[in-house]
Amino acid sequence: MSDAAGTVERYLAIWNETDPAQRRAMIAQTWSDDASYLDPMMAGDGPDGIDAMIAGVQQQATGLQFRQVGTVDSHNDRVRFSWELVGPNGGEPVYAGTDFATLAADGRLQTVTGFLDRVPS
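The structure corresponding to this sequence follows.
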């Protein structure tokens, strides 16, 4: 397995990248062509679906940033990590979650299943 921590770092950077061309290049580097994402609020399939999903989140959460919480846990082709979505100056997270991922043979993300641990009331 390739560097799972580096893959997660790139994954979170994608969520924070607002330049569409740069984000698409990062998706190609980090996600497999047949990738899928699923959480209780949204889903995306393949590079186009994942890009559209992330762009939609960015429109709704302007100025917020994703950051990793804790360390990446991985074995075989499985990865688990936690994140939070915070304002530009940090502070209390607006959203927080734990994602479970599988990696393709080349180390890119193949599936991500997200669980929301904290949502606004």
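The beta strands are 31-38, 43-45, 65-75, 78-87, 90-103, 109-118.
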